[in-house]
Amino acid sequence: MSSPEPVQSDAGGGAPGGTDGPAWRIGHGYDLHRLEPTAPAGPGRPLVVGGVELDHDRGPVAHSDGDALLHAVTDALLGAIGAPDIGQLFPDDASENEGRGSRDFVREALRWVRACGYEPANLDATVILERPRLSAHKGAIITRLARLLDLPVDRVNVKGKSHERVDAVGEGRAIEVHVVVLLERV
Ligand code: MG
């Protein structure tokens, strides 16, 4: 795995952590995982969203623990500083990533962010999951994310959406997540 280091930005202005780096950087992360019946009926892992396990008969098919929200958070953090993405840093054919807890990916992305001289300012996530409904778990997920990112809970937001029963997500065959994160130079 690469070690964190300031990354040259294509957008100009030098490395993000340099003295001429912008005061703010924004990052977007996206992830989707196919949901299959959980063991012993199928290959799905337990459905974990933002580090919180949801009771469901389907779960993600994934090399790691398949936490789509934490994967999107990781890519948003890495994207904001122009670093390699989650698939480049944690290849899904690497044995050390088999069943790996996705909190590790977020922590590593945060190390990259800090090495560039930034801290998360706030994060907003949208989780599109037909069932179970996210509403009962939002508070727990926000608390976990805030702790993971060293942010107060009022700087972390998670929205749950349905896909109106259409397409794979709406038919309960996938979970989809979008995340936007703002970084502040410190
Ligand atoms: Mg993923």
Summarize the structure.
This protein is 25% helix and 27% strand.
The arrangement of helices and strands along the chain is: EEEEHHHEHEHE
* Widest sheet, order of strands: 4-1-7-5-6
Structural class: alpha+beta
Distance between the first and last residues' Cα: 26 Å
Q: What CATH architecture do you see?
A: 2-Layer Sandwich
* Radius of gyration, taken over Cα atoms and rounded to an integer in Å: 17 Å
CATH class: Alpha Beta
Task: State the share of residues found in helices, binned by percent.
Answer: 10-25%
Number of helices: 5
- Uncertain spans: 8-14
Present as ligands are: magnesium ion
Count of spatially separate domains: 1
**Strand tally:** 7
CATH topology: 60s Ribosomal Protein L30, Chain: A
Largest sheet: 5 strands, mixed
Shape: globular
What's the average pLDDT? 91
Strand content: 25-35%
Superfamily (CATH H level) name: 2-C-methyl-D-erythritol 2,4-cyclodiphosphate synthase
Layout: helices, strands, pairs:
Blueprint: E1 24-37, E2 48-49, E3 52-53, E4 58-60, H1 68-80, H2 86-89, H3 103-115, E5 118-128, H4 138-149, E6 156-161, H5 167-170, E7 174-185
Parallel strand pairs: 5-6
Antiparallel strand pairs: 1-4, 1-7, 2-3, 5-7
The protein binds magnesium ion.
Keywords, please?
binds magnesium ion, alpha+beta, 186 residues, five-stranded mixed beta sheet, 27% strand, 60s Ribosomal Protein L30, Chain: A
Task: Please provide a written account of the structure.
The structure is a single chain. The chain is an alpha+beta fold. The chain has 5 helices and 7 strands. The strands form 2 sheets. A 5-stranded mixed beta sheet has the order 4-1-7-5-6. The chain has a two-stranded antiparallel sheet with strand order 2-3. The longest helix has 13 residues, at 68-80. It is globular, with a radius of gyration of 17 Å. Bound molecules: magnesium ion. Magnesium ion (MG) binds at residues 31, 33, 68, 71.
